[in-house]
Amino acid sequence: MTGNNNQTIQGLVAEALRESTDLAQKEFALFRTEVSQNVRTMFIGIAMVVGAAIFAIAAIMLFTEALVKWLATVVGSEALAALIVGGVLAVIAIGLGLYGRSAMSSSALTPQRTVRSIKRDAEVLSERVTG
Asked: Which residues span the membrane (predicted)?
């Protein structure tokens, strides 16, 4: 009877190790897939932002020139009009730059599903060990 209990315990331990290894491999595969998708999404986003920036620069240059010429007729000085328009554009550029920097933080690349799955697995394992 003692031999049977030892064999059963050894079998259970071996099975637990196999399942743990299998679980770890699956978690790592999920991690790789999720990070790969996140990086791909970020590169697509960067490409879109670059394309938009090229067109936006051309549009801003044309609108800025028109605005400076119009404002020069209102204030009577082309230099003063250029300073006013340039100041407003500088404030807008600073705001957009700060927002863009926060959007590209490292937390956007964190594999959230994998982290949740690992926490859930740890909770289940701890419940099985204690319960």
From this structure: 42-64, 79-99
Single pTM value for the model: 0.44
Q: How many other C-beta atoms can be found within 10 angstroms of the C-beta atom of residue 71? A: 18
Dig out the tokens for 112 from the structure. Answer: 């959230």
Q: Which of 89, 42, 93, 28 is nearest to 64 (CA)?
A: 89
Cα angle 84-87-61, degrees, rounded to a multiple of 5: 85
The whole-number pLDDT of residue 4 equals 57
**Phi then psi for 46, rounded to 5 degrees?**
-65, -40
**Residues 35/113, Cβ–Cβ less than 8 Å:** no
**Alpha-carbon separation of residue 1 from 4, 8, 64, 69 (angstroms):** 5, 11, 91, 99
Nearest to 26 by CA among 122, 107, 102, 118: 118
Q: Percentage of residues in the chain with pLDDT exceeding 90? A: 44
Residue 29 pLDDT exceeds 60: yes
Write down the residue that tokens 């791909």 correspond to. Answer: 40
Return d(Cα 131, Cα 117) in angstroms, integer.
21
pLDDT reported for residue 60 = 84
Inter-residue contact 27 to 114 (CB < 8 Å): yes
